[in-house]
Design goal:
Elements (H helix, E strand, L loop, with lengths): L7 H11 L4 E4 L2 E2 L2 E2 L26 H10 L4 E5 L6 E7 H15 L6 E4 L3 E7 L8 E2 L6 E4 L1 E5 L7 E4 L4 E2 L2
Parallel strand pairs: 7-12
Antiparallel strand pairs: 1-4, 2-3, 4-10, 5-7, 5-9, 6-7, 6-11, 8-9
């Protein structure tokens, strides 16, 4: 009986898909740049490898297996919005934390929800509850962005860490 080595990125992408979250492969950071090969890439490790971008996101196991066979180091993108029923508030740095505190003082404390640490802050995961949620940058406050494509997991040293339960609250 042989040893079966499982790609941890593929394994995680399949877990997201099994939970109903459509995924797609993203280019990964490589040698201080991006695996896409563009030396001027503005979004290293954060843009889709697929032809139709986020529109290609799927929960189909065969497609996901094929993508990670072709690009085993690919980052995982999770489509948010209509298909998945979730949206993410990206809280960037001190300005984002201050804006979030200001909103909570004015509107009340946010409900407990999924939270992931990022390099500059965190991401808060919420269910859309059937509402249409649009992408925005800074509209909620400085350092707060609403995202329609998020990184599900980075590989290697940039790995994100879930710091609060995987449950998600409804849109506040």
């Amino acid at each position: 009986m042989g040893i079966r080595i499982v790609n941890p990125l593929l394994h995680q992408a399949l877990k997201y898909a099994a939970a109903g979250l459509p995924v797609l492969p993203l280019y990964e950071p490589r040698n201080g740049g991006c695996a896409c090969g563009d030396p001027q890439c503005k979004r290293p490790g954060k843009h889709p490898r697929t032809r139709n971008g986020v529109r290609d996101a799927t929960t189909d196991r065969e497609t996901i297996n094929r993508w990670w066979r072709e690009s085993p180091g690919a980052n995982i993108g999770i489509e948010t919005g209509g298909k998945s029923g979730i949206f993410v508030v990206d809280v960037d740095g001190l300005p984002g934390r201050q804006s979030l505190r200001r909103i909570e003082v004015e509107k009340g404390t946010l409900p407990p929800t999924g939270k992931v640490l990022t390099g500059r802050g965190c991401q808060l995961y919420f269910r859309t509850l059937g509402r249409r949620i649009s992408n925005s940058a800074g509209q909620l406050g400085k350092g707060l962005d609403v995202r329609g494509l998020i990184m599900g997991q980075f590989g290697g040293e940039q790995a994100r860490r879930v710091v609060q339960g995987s449950g998600m609250s409804g849109a506040p």
